[in-house]
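We close this part of the discussion by returning to an individual protein. Part of our work consisted of pairing the sequence of a single chain with a tokenised description of its backbone. No coordinates are needed to read the tokens, only the vocabulary itself. The amino acid sequence and the backbone structure tokens for this protein are reproduced below:
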Amino acid sequence: MARAVFLDRDGTILEDPGFLHQPGRARLLPGAGEAIRRLNAAGFLVVTVSNQSGIARGLYDVAAYHAVQQRLSELLAAHGARIDAAYFCPHHPEITGPCECRKPGTRLFREAQDALGIDFGRSAFVGDRPSDVEPARALGGRGILVETGAGGAHVAQARVLSATVVPDLAAAVDEIVRAA
């Protein structure tokens, strides 16, 4: 079974201007490209799992999400890095009703596990919101909150969830690789 690092996208890998849907506005956070390259080199699958409520809100469509993902792939390739798989939830409970794919729900993580043969116990869940790290409690593995994006406002909640708190993705990767 494979080890994976599940990464939130906006606020963790990319700057988060709010409802990012224009590829030209996609900007890597400092050190993110090198951090993901290190995960690739260490043998971790890198999987993005992202809540994209802007789709449910009618602010952009699925094609716009995919266009930003394509731009992210290009930005990472310039650093010798790659994302192995990407999953997203297009719902919002107040608009589309409840779903099992919106983080902290575990459906998308389980789909990735089935598709890629992932061992959750040897994996990490990294993001800038409690909903990004909470799946580690339900599935096993390690939760790591980054203080980039919205992370600085959620440190106390993350600690209640037994998540490690670090300044950014590079520091999260330091923790992951050291424990591997």
